[in-house]
Amino acid sequence: MPRSVAFGDRLGYFRSHMTNSVLLSIDGPLATITLNDPAKHNRLDPAGLKLLREAVEKADADPNVRVTVITGAGDKTFCSGYDLGSIPAGERKDEGGDNTFEVVMDRIEAMRMPTLCALNGGVYGGATDLALACDFRLGVKGMRFFMPAARFGLHYYPSGLRRYTQKVSPSFAKRAFLLSEDFHDTELLAVGYLDWLVERAEFKDKVAEKATRLAGLAPLSMSGMTRAIEQFAQAAPDMSSIRQTQRACATSEDLKEGLAALGERRTPTFKGR
After folding, report:
1. Count of CB atoms situated within 10 Å of the CB of 118
2. Dmax of the chain from CA atoms?
3. Which of 114, 124, 121 has its CA nearest to residue 139?
4. What Å distances lie between residue 195 and 132, 163, 167, 186, 238, CA to CA?
5. β-strand 77-79 against 136-140: which pairing, if any?
6. Which has the least CB within 10 A, 17, 45, 59, 195?
7. What is the DSSP letter of 3?
8. CB-based contacts of 56: which residues, under 8 Å, 6+ apart?
9. What is the rounded CA–CA span in Å between residue 253 and residue 269?
């Protein structure tokens, strides 16, 4: 059994600016990033995208964090994507760089520990890729999905197309991008876009359950296998790096503790080394 991790109500170590459109809270092994502009369906603009990048960097740099949850405020929309009116400005050299939408999504995908996207409502536009950049996706019944890129003449960025194709399927990518189809909750579960779909009344508890389970597992092996799985999915594995991590786990304190706990029928206490 994973060790207990408080979620949601207990603030613990909390870092945020309440006027920000993106909030970060860190409570021991759990980091929660909340898109916090429900009046605008949590839509991201260049300023919000910068805040999201900063929140991701802070969570990823904290050695105590073992899982990051990304969710939205309110109960209607997880995120309505990127502000299309900001695209020209967001691509200027003075406002792009490390904070372009593609770069930030890639940064989320590259986080060292597992990520869980808690889709509290509909997901649209670029936010559909934000969810795919996470390792797991938990949705709420009644949610909808829509990718309008082709309707606006927008050619989506390469890494986003890769995620759609690899993490779901080429067929789903074509239906989403080339046909601009709407998808409903059960369809998203059936095609594999969602890992879990739950009733709204169960949503917070299920997010807490999954986050707790992820946070209670051995962090050294979790981090290594997360990277390895992504590399194999991209057909570009760094075998030397994977073998190195495998060897490190084989001689780690975490493995010794896990085996000892198994023999003693107790919950292991992992230290990530």
Report:
1. 25
2. 61
3. 121
4. 11, 15, 11, 11, 27
5. unpaired
6. 17
7. P
8. 33, 68, 104, 107, 108, 111
9. 10
| 3-state SS class at 189 | helix
Residue 41, Cβ density class (10 Å: 0-12 exposed, 13-18 middle, ≥19 buried): buried
Residue listed under structure tokens 């601009």: 180
Determine the Cα–Cα distance for residues 52 and 111; give it in Å rounded to an integer. Answer: 13
Residue 145 corresponds to which amino acid?
Answer: F
| Chain segment 18-76, per-residue pLDDT in tens | 358 999 999 999 999 999 999 999 999 999 999 999 999 999 999 999 999 999 999 99
In DSSP terms, which residues pair with 144 in a beta bridge? 184
State pTM to two decimals.
0.81
Residue 54 CB neighbours (<10 A): 15
Instruction: Please give the DSSP secondary-structure letter assigned to residue 158.
Output: H
Q: Do 169 and 163 form a contact (C-beta atoms < 8 A)?
A: no
Domains of the chain: 13-215 (3.90.226.10), 219-264 (no CATH)
Whole-number Å distance between alpha carbons of 119 and 103: 21
Condensed to tens digits (0 to 9), the pLDDT of residues 155-209 reads 888 889 999 999 999 999 999 999 999 999 999 999 999 999 999 999 999 999 9
Question: Where does 67-220 show beta strands of DSSP type E?
Answer: 67-72, 77-79, 115-119, 122-124, 136-140, 144-146, 182-184, 196-198
Sheet holding 22-27, edge to edge: 13-15, 22-27, 30-35, 67-72, 115-119, 136-140, 196-198
